[in-house]
Amino acid sequence: MCLAIPAKVKSIEGHEGDVEVGGISRKASFMLTPEVMVGDYVLLHTGYAISIVDETEAKETLRLLEELAQQGAVYS
Amino acid sequence: MEFCGGHTFAILKNGIRDLLPSNLELVSGPGCPVCVTAISDLDKAIFLSHLPQTITTTFGDMVRVPGSHGSLASARVEGADVRIVYSTMDALDIAQENPQSQVIFVGIGFETTAPTIAASIVEAQRREIDNYHVLPLGKLCPPVMGALLKMGETKIDGIIGPGHVSTIIGSRPYEFIPREYGVPFVISGFEPLDILLAVEMLVEQIEEEDPKVEIAYRRGVKPEGNARAQQLMEEVFEVSNANWRGIGEIPRSGLSIREKFSHFDALKAYDIEPGLSREPKGCICGEILRGIKNPQDCRLFRRACTPENPVGPCMVSSEGSCAAYYRYGGEDG
Amino acid sequence: MPPTTAMAEKMDNRITLAHGSGGSLTHKLIRETFLPLLSNPLLGRLDDGAVFGVDKGRLAFTTDSYVVNPLFFPGGDIGRLAVCGTVNDLSMCGARPLYLSLSLIIEEGFSQPDLQRIISSVREAALEADVEVITGDTKVVGRGSADGLFITTSGIGIVPEGIEVSGTNAKAGDKVILSGTLGDHGMTILIQREGLGFEGPIESDCAPLNQMVSSMLEASHDIHCLRDPTRGGLATTLNEIALQSEVGILIQEDATPLNPSVSALCELLGFDPLYVANEGKLVAMVKASDSDRVLEAMKENKYGKRATIIGEVTGEHPGRVVIRTRMGTSRIVDMLTGDLLPRIC
């Protein structure tokens, strides 16, 4: 269950702070990701950061996805 | 089977089924927390909403689901203070800003949301908020997957696993699925290419006859999951039996609030008497959730049951199969 | 006469039932609030109705009520909305908007300074659109009977000879042009209203489009349909036209422009921008060979900078709208059914 999108951490105060996505900001809770730092990208679900997006993994997946797209995801 | 409602949504919206070969069929599972909330549990929430000096807070999707007698939305029309919140944080703020009212949070969700509910209870305790109560309706994914496989109603050759539930619980809780049932399991992200990648990995596992749990969504899921979130869940909740709409009671598949936090438990704080619950006639949400029927197989689909006039939860929740098929499925579904 | 006590001063600043009775307070309101802001010879006469002549041609006539909540929002307010909405409805018929009526239903206790602000917005929007408010009405209802303020505007315009713009006129082969970004108004209102805690550079696109439409009609005599995608969003509007004209419509998913803030909010809350309301956009069905010229004309107007071709009208699947996704697959786009609820989890 599902709706979570990557947002950038702009500020941290205690275990709360502000995150931003596409110019939109919101207060967020970092109670589930206390190790977060300003500048990290987190997966935001109902106002809580549920994980820190691993940049290396993100890049690797993007590479894989591009490869797939080029091979032709369409089987006909 | 794609377990998760968010995947059903992405698959239909992007026309993914049209990209798959004809011998590959995707069937939707029960991964929609609104859809699997038992009608008797929804009735409890509606009962609570009518209480005086009570503010009922909920995620948006729950508001229009028909209970046995009306919905939270109709309760609001009748004068109940029902508010949609984006986050349990907001529900807590409402409690703090309205000390003369009792604030109830309708706590549906799977393991993605459960930690946020747990966090709100821990935070309520820290801030000494005493007018905040959670109606604990959280449910767990691996047990219902096991139950479906055990029931064996649909022949499932592979499971596209939920992305964000797995962000929390990691990949290990699913290992019993390939081990005991020989079914391949790949955890997928939500972009259309993510889903196709997961399908490709499942097909490979099937061809190699080597079922296992794999993570395709590596930017969002680690094998061990989110330890802090798991810890919070463990601190606040204990596993209990739960009633799944359309499936029935599944042992050890739900979350109830531990004794230590019982003063935040709406079930303990209130005498809830919602009256007799009854399922709407003709609604086959249950069979759709189990993956044995499609929305188009339902007599009510597009006729008596539409997003404007929903009969069952699968049509209300935008992660429900019926709503997704209605909106994006076209004539042939 | 200046108020003598603080209480009287406070009362003086609120609309009371007496303001709607038609008596001296009503006249005071008209003379002190409405006339100075909306002044024009026809309104100034204060007759029961406004009498005016028109050039030869067909008349277009439209009416709309505005019940938006909140009354004030980033990018506008109910006053601006009331003018733009009706001006745009006239423009969508190919008419040049001329005159508006303005009826207010005000809730007892409404703040006079707020009323002043709203009427100022009406004035500014009317000036921008080059229309005049020539007749009006004010009623005051008891507390709780109106959400602060309701406005109804009716509008009259003239349709020049030879212009035939109608939802029934779309032809296979026409290009579908969208004047700009989707979802700005609807998402702005939503986050103001529900208190969801989001902030950011997002504002309503509420705007009068008549000048842009004028230059479009000058650029081409083969604009077959014009419509503004308000409630129900672009998806609903395209479906209406497809049904009225008995044609099919095909659009490209990645052709529809979105502001990043709207896109982010839609992702966060689970909305589909195709279904979110707009108040300063239009969609046009134009003969293919004229479409580039019309597009140029639109881009020269401040409200059409991001105008773009998003698809075409086809003879296939009449009555249905189909979208080609980024993945190259196609699926049907239905009308909006039910409410848009925030999809949260």
What order do the helices and strands of chain C follow? Answer: HHHEEEHEHEEEHHEHEHEHEEE
CATH superfamily of the domain at 35-140 and 226-269 in chain B: HypD, alpha/beta domain 2
CATH topology of the domain at 35-140 and 226-269 in chain B: Rossmann fold
Question: If strands are numbered along the chain, what order do they take across the biggest sheet of chain C?
Answer: 8-10-7-11-9-12-13
Shape assignment of chain C: globular
Overall mean pLDDT of chain C: 90
Query: Which descriptor suits the 3D outline of chain B?
Result: globular
**Strand composition percent of chain B:** 15-25%
**Strand composition percent of chain C:** 15-25%
What Rg of chain B is obtained from the alpha carbons, in whole angstroms?
20 Å
Broad structural category of chain C: alpha+beta
What is the CATH superfamily label of the largest domain in chain C?
PurM-like C-terminal domain
The number of distinct structural domains of chain C comes to: 2
Q: Work out the number of β strands of chain C.
A: 13
Enumerate how many helices of chain B there are, as a single number. Answer: 14
Largest sheet of chain B: 4 strands, parallel
The value of Rg of chain C in angstroms is: 22 Å
The CATH class of the largest domain in chain C, by name, is Alpha Beta
The CATH architecture term of the domain at 35-140 and 226-269 in chain B is 3-Layer(aba) Sandwich
